[in-house]
Design a protein that fits this description.
With about 120 residues, the protein is mostly helical. The protein contains three helices and two strands; from the N terminus they run H-E-E-H-H. Helix 2 runs antiparallel to helix 3.
Length: about 120
């Protein structure tokens, strides 16, 4: 088990920033109302907003088909950084969800639509 997964399983929250050494930062056992939790929520929201803006910018650039190699390289770099942030947000939020009622995704049973006759 990797260190980040172990920390998350112990009730820690993966924060949306890294240490100066590039290591993940965690907030241990919090009810989500403290200063650091609220700051992390704001940073995550900003990261998701930046990702949405970059997606729109990428669509425009690709649609116009008049880019320079430097523009594509900058866009790819920005998208990579943003995707890294969004993945961290997803891991952090996913770790705080309750465990599923089944053991593995393969054992999940599809939900039945109760409105349709069987």
């Amino acid at each position: 088990m990797t260190e980040p997964i172990r920390r998350l399983m112990e009730g820690g929250r993966l924060l949306p920033w890294s240490s100066l050494e590039g290591k993940p930062c965690y907030l241990l056992a919090s009810d989500g109302t403290g200063y650091v939790s609220r700051m992390a929520d704001r940073v995550e929201a900003e990261q998701l907003d930046v990702a949405a803006e970059l997606i729109e910018e990428a669509r425009i650039v690709l649609r116009e088909q008049s880019w320079t190699p430097g523009e594509i390289q900058l866009l790819a770099s920005d998208l990579t950084a943003s995707l890294t942030n969004v993945r961290r947000v997803a891991v952090s939020r996913g770790a705080r969800l309750p465990a599923p009622a089944y053991d593995s995704p393969d054992r999940a049973t599809p939900e039945r639509d109760e409105t349709r006759p069987v």
